[in-house]
């Protein structure tokens, strides 16, 4: 990987980090998280705009002006970030802003890895490889965090069952309270859920770059979508309906079971 790709990787991860802060603000109405997310997104917005200006200047100096589809997608990505700023300034719809930026993030990653500082397109295999590196790093981070949450869900059900049956054991005193377990489990989802969404977005981009649309029906893609849907339902039930902790813990374990299926289905998948 040359120094250009190191820069591109850094920008993509900064963009991903900004989305984590935005999602945290949506769930917890955390003003500090929103400020951090906005600051990081402004940095990405400035660099994205600089790439666009660089491209325009390069083409203006060329004998024939040619604005490619990649350039148009880059402009669209930059416009999506701009729209998210406008929505954030005038409307209180953080969830829409998050998903607007998920689209922007996907296009941003695609365009950075399809664009060199000299205005040439990188080799297809190199583009796909770099996108896959980003996808794998995001999905491993998500799986590690959500695995911790699954252990907490099991712990919650054990303590809840012991209290319900009045079969308290001495070793259970070493466990945190149900409230602490539930709160920590929820935080694992708040971090892991957007990471899963971004990793899936990168996976879909890789498929598009390779032109292998038939892989959209790949077993790992489908199970990832199902797991994301269940985790999203978990957040909805916890945040909106305030469902009891033991019901939420079971829902979490169902989503995690789908993740396990996703991992074990690698043998039957043609994606990785």
From TrEMBL:
Instruction: Provide the transmembrane region boundaries.
Output: 6-28, 40-58, 70-88, 95-113, 133-159, 188-209, 215-236, 248-265
Q: Give the GO molecular function terms.
A: heme binding
UniProt xrefs under InterPro entries: Cyt_c_assembly, YpjD/HemX
Q: Which UniProt keywords apply?
A: Membrane, Transmembrane, Transmembrane helix
An annotated GO BP: cytochrome complex assembly
What are the Cytochrome c assembly protein domain coordinates in residue numbering?
72-260
| Highest taxon of the lineage | Bacteria
Task: Tell me the PANTHER family matching this sequence.
Answer: INNER MEMBRANE PROTEIN YPJD
* Listed name of the protein: Protein HemX
The organism named in the record is: Paenibacillus montaniterrae
- Gene designation per UniProt: hemX
């Amino acid at each position: 990987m040359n120094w250009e790709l190191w820069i591109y990787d850094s920008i993509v991860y900064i963009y991903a980090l900004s989305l984590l802060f935005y999602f945290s603000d949506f769930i917890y109405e955390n003003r500090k998280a929103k400020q951090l997310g906005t600051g990081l997104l402004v940095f990405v917005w400035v660099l994205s705009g600089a790439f666009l200006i660089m491209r325009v200047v390069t083409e203006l100096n060329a004998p024939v002006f040619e604005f490619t589809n990649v350039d148009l997608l880059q402009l669209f990505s930059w416009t999506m970030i701009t729209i998210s700023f406008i929505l954030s300034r005038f409307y209180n719809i953080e969830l829409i802003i998050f998903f607007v930026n998920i689209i922007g993030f996907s296009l941003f990653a695609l365009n950075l890895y399809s664009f060199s500082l000299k205005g040439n397109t990188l080799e297809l295999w190199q583009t796909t490889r770099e996108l896959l590196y980003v996808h794998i790093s995001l999905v491993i981070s998500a799986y590690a965090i959500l695995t911790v949450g699954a252990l907490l869900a099991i712990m919650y059900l054990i303590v809840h069952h012991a209290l319900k049956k009045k079969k308290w054991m001495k070793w259970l005193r070493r466990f945190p309270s149900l409230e602490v377990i539930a709160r920590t489990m929820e935080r694992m989802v708040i971090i892991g859920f957007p990471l899963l969404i971004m990793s899936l977005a990168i996976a879909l981009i890789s498929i598009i770059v390779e032109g292998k649309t038939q892989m959209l029906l790949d077993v790992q893609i489908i199970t990832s979508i199902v797991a994301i849907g269940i985790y999203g339902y978990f957040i909805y039930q916890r945040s909106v309906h305030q469902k009891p902790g033991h019901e939420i813990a079971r829902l979490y374990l169902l989503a995690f079971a789908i993740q396990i299926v996703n991992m074990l289905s690698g043998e039957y998948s043609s994606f990785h």
